[in-house]
Amino acid sequence: MIPEKLTVLLIEDDEDDYVLTSELLKETKRTAYEITWISRYQEAAVAVLIGGYDVCLVDYRLGEGDGISLIREARNKGCPMPMILLTGQGDPDVDLSANDAGAADYLVKGEIDAQLLERAIRYAVANAKVTASLAESEIRFRSVIESATDAIVLTDAAGSVISWNPGAEKIFGYKQGEMVGMPISTIFPSNDTDIHSTYPVDDALTSAGLLEAGNATVETRGVRQDETELPLEIAVSSWQTPDGTYYCRIIRDVTERKSLEDQLTHQALHDPLTSLPNRVLFTNRVEHALTRSARRSAQIAVLFIDLDNFKTVNDTMGHAAGDSLLTTVADRLQNCLRASDTASRLGGEEFAVLIEDTSGTNRGCLVAQRILDMVRKPIDIGGKDVFIGASIGIALSSSPPEPPATLLRNADVAMYTAKSQGKNQFAVFEDDMHIALINRSELETELRTALSSGEFEMFYQPIVE
After folding, report:
1. Burial of 251 (0-12, 13-18, 19+ CB in 10 A)
2. The CATH number of the domain where 183 resides is what?
3. N or C: which end of the chain has fewer CB within 10 A?
4. Which among 144, 161, 188 is the end of a domain?
């Protein structure tokens, strides 16, 4: 809203024209004007730079110079005050020159009245306020861009960088002067196709390695000036102008987040003591191995390993000694396997091994014997040699393959068979082992039920010599 009173700087070398203009302003009804009159060019040039006025009315001819030169000089020195050029005669060339110099309007003295002059001043002041507000917003916006820790990169439709903020300099190492005009593909690895395969890509941007999806967020990898790679999260937006399409990319270095995610994922899928895959990850790998083996008409083997006499070590030497023993066994276990095999700690003193691409029991038995030999070797704990053994059950996949849980259960059953036969040996699962286990479990249940319900009778049989 325009205030009820405006201060006017009137630059006019003709006193009669000054009086005429003053009278016109006095005739206005909506706004009161406080006028300051300056007649000399040099004084006027200083006054406009000092400012303090709402609007400036400038005569075209000022004796020592002209109004257009005064306006241009003021604009070049950053004067924001709206300036209206007044001239005695209409001239299209003067009109264009005034506009180019930064005049808010151009009025012919003999053709204006109080209403026209007031409207011109009102529009000039209002437009100046809007311009100032936009300039302030631009400053704030630029401040946000300059202070942002994220990279904010603007490109044209061809993928050429037109703006590169300090955040981008910090993340990628390139200075703004080095990147403006360069293709955005400079900061993406040449073999990175993730950004293309996840979302539609505009033909014009494909060669430059650019995402074009209007508004989208993707994760990909970037490359710094020193050629090291880093994980990135990129938010992409585009907008249309008469000059074409432009793109804004807000790029965030997610190295720390990815590291934390990897750490949490590792903790969720690995045993914290031995760093071996835990039951969840082991089961997942067995599932994938079964799928692969079915396609190749091959088999896999699962070994269930239980350390014999581990509880004795734990009870006599303490949990720290037990932990040391477990980590040593885990290291030795991995040395017994190929890179394609998987060792896992299921919990306590129980381990498991996945062997892929096996046929029959030969490889499973060879690995089991190797593990037994490894476990038998003395383990140095606190300067003392400790000896333990292991009972191992082996289960082979069938066709069609059983679920991973079933295969692991079968190996567990075979392990208990090996333990019942004297420990420190291995056994291969057979169906009758499971049947025997079920029968034994049922027998135990029936005995407990009979005992609790008083179905047993006690008889005394004398021993006669």
Report:
1. buried
2. 3.30.450.20
3. C
4. 144
Residues 286 and 392 in one domain: yes
In a shared domain, residues 292 and 224: no
Kindly state whether residues 299 and 249 are assigned to the same domain. Answer: no
User: Helices marked H in 56-174 — which ranges?
Assistant: 67-76, 92-101, 114-147, 166-172
Global pTM reads 0.58
In this structure, what CATH number is given to the domain that contains residue 29?
Answer: 3.40.50.2300
User: pLDDT tens for residues 85-121?
Assistant: 998 888 888 889 888 988 989 898 888 888 898 888 8
Question: Do 161 and 184 meet the contact criterion of CB atoms below 8 Å apart?
Answer: yes
Tokens representing 124 are 């000039």
Give 224's contacts (C-beta < 8 A, 6+ positions apart).
171, 172, 173, 187, 230
Please name which of 86, 8, 20 lies closest in space to residue 54, comparing C-alpha atoms: 8
Backbone angles phi, psi at 96, to 5 degrees: -65, -40
What does the alpha-carbon distance between residue 73 and residue 48 come to, in Å, rounded to a whole number?
10
Range of 442's domain?
Answer: 270-452
The DSSP 8-state label assigned to residue 186 in this structure reads G
Task: Please give the tally of structural domains in the chain.
Answer: 3
Q: What pLDDT digit, counting tens, does each position of 345-393 carry?
A: 999 999 999 999 887 778 999 999 999 999 999 999 988 999 999 999 9
> Helices 92-101 and 67-76 meet at what angle, rounded to 10?
20
Q: Quick one: 186 and 289 in the same domain?
A: no
246 and 159 share one domain: yes
Q: What tokens appear for 42 in the block?
A: 């040099």
Q: Does the N-terminal peptide bond of residue 400 adopt cis geometry, omega within 30 degrees of 0?
A: yes
Q: Cβ atoms within 10 A of the Cβ of 193, count?
A: 12
Extract the tokens encoding 267: 């903790």
Q: Is-contact 233 217, C-beta < 8 A?
A: yes
List Cα–Cα distances, 109 to 66, 104, 116, 154, 441, in angstroms.
16, 16, 11, 47, 113
Q: Based on the domain organization, do 411 and 373 belong to the same domain?
A: yes
Q: 350-358 and 384-386 as β-strands: parallel, antiparallel, unpaired?
A: unpaired
Whether residues 340 and 448 fall in one domain:
yes
The pair of structure tokens assigned to 372 is 């037994």
